[in-house]
């Protein structure tokens, strides 16, 4: 029996060998190694940080401006139209970062408003956001307040209140350009502040506006420094420019630009009031002088303390660079051109305006004696400043608004 047990417990190498042979026959041959895909190839030692060097996430909170409400502010008046494009926040840390990139995408945006008056003050403002980057407001009136508060993303604040408005964003948000020609390719909707009720006290009250953001910036943007004009060129919000006047600016006696007959002045969202501009050499904008002869516009200034219904600043032509420099030092309407007749369409329809940046160097000069020519020029300048425009009606004829082609 012991031998039988030994026989039963003995291993069976032949059966195991058969199984091994059978398994070896069934196993497929080892596949040849494939070449690494070209698209996934990377240099030895290149990590995730190096791969994502073209993209950064910018987080912070920047002050973008302030609005004022007084007892004379009309209900429905547009107080501010703020672009969420980082390049629009001139002078902020984010705008400097955005100059190095070409595309952006918002992940989280919150607009904060902080009042500077006491809680006993009366008055109200309405804020709203719409996904339409080309949203427009009509002239001041209660309808603007109704339109502002009809948006799902809107709030009504008392002038003494401090609050915020969360701007909707989408995780699948498409990339937007930091610089371009079409607003729908650059802007994440439109944020606007509207006066809902005037301030009840004397003077005015200010409301500070800041934006807390979390943006993705992508794509290195190398600037072309070979141009003759330094700085970034600007364009009007809408094409088809021509020289004319508007009734709500100096009673329609001074030249500005429009983009349609009977409408508001053409707005320049990125215009800097501390600079003056020179028309691109390849473009042409003309106006009619006192003898109804066509003259070329070359230099433009930003009209002080004036915005159109979109909240954009407005450019006005001047006769020379010296007048533009003088207007920058003292914004007097005497330096602006007089309106006589609507000019022809601009060429091209949406030209570029280059900011003129002068070297800020220290100049120490000895006092100079005034010559006869200088005295005569100063006398002419004073006459231009002191000349008062003739009174006109608030609404001009529509015929004078049609460009002369």
TrEMBL record:
<dbReference type="InterPro" id="IPR000937">
    <property type="entry name" value="Capsid_prot_S-dom_vir"/>
</dbReference>
<feature type="region of interest" description="Disordered">
    <location>
        <begin position="1"/>
        <end position="52"/>
    </location>
</feature>
<feature type="compositionally biased region" description="Low complexity">
    <location>
        <begin position="25"/>
        <end position="38"/>
    </location>
</feature>
<dbReference type="GO" id="GO:0005198">
    <property type="term" value="F:structural molecule activity"/>
</dbReference>
<feature type="compositionally biased region" description="Basic residues">
    <location>
        <begin position="15"/>
        <end position="24"/>
    </location>
</feature>
<dbReference type="InterPro" id="IPR029053">
    <property type="entry name" value="Viral_coat"/>
</dbReference>
<protein>
    <submittedName>
        <fullName>Putative viral protein found in triatoma</fullName>
    </submittedName>
</protein>
<feature type="domain" description="Icosahedral viral capsid protein S">
    <location>
        <begin position="51"/>
        <end position="177"/>
    </location>
</feature>
<dbReference type="Pfam" id="PF00729">
    <property type="entry name" value="Viral_coat"/>
</dbReference>
